């Protein structure tokens, strides 16, 4: 806690902060003068992010927690009060993504997606509201364009993100009475490198291939640093909603005006993706499904982002027997 003579610095709690967009949002908040409470599932994976952010002048406290657990939100908000005595910004960014056809997914995949991306937003936000009210604080709910319109082979993710968008929009209406602003962040595809940590099922290599290519194309995806800057700026200004990438803006508006048309179009797109295997096995981290050499050459931006934004130092958890973490630079990965 700050000494009485020290200047009071605002404090931000960021979930999913060890890598990718969450790390970059935390970095932007540090540059804006915030001290930080960082949360991710793995304590070791948080350490590289912590070192980088402390080097930028922020005081950083880390907590390893699974935000899908009911008690995690209370623990996180309690830590913010004990360590800093205040909370000014909550960034609910924890996420998980399973890629594969519906026929190869399991009920557990839907439960996990809802635990992380709906309850992992709702519980921390509700727990933090009284604390944020004391500072007229801000909440950034990082959702996805997948919460505005459906996408093939991302059914658990899309369902959880739709629920997250609905909760965040509804909370925006009521939190203002307590002096708390809620910003609904709706990113489209971003070059964070996180595609290597997606959980793939079905024809794993083929599923990883289409997903990684989409996250690498400059005209389709957005630079993650620029996305983090825009999200933080919108949050600190109290903007109700921000949709990132031109395609996401166009897609959300077209779907709102002509949902039957977009559903027919996306159904046709689904027919171009790999078919199911019918195995129904547990999803495994995408980096365990090597990409063909010719495709690796098309995905250099995604690979570079993974190396810069700690996707290697905090990989996805083991989801199946014999699955281990990919080492950076491993041939075929």
TrEMBL record:
Residues 302-333 are annotated as: Disordered. The keyword Oxidoreductase applies. Gene3D superfamilies: NAD(P)-binding Rossmann-like Domain (3.40.50.720). Residues 10-193 form the Ketoreductase domain. It comes from the Bacteria. Keywords: Oxidoreductase. Residues 304-317 have a biased composition (Basic and acidic residues). It holds the Pfam family adh_short. One of its GO terms (molecular function) is oxidoreductase activity. GO terms for cellular component: membrane. Belongs to the short-chain dehydrogenases/reductases (SDR) family. This is Ketoacyl reductase.
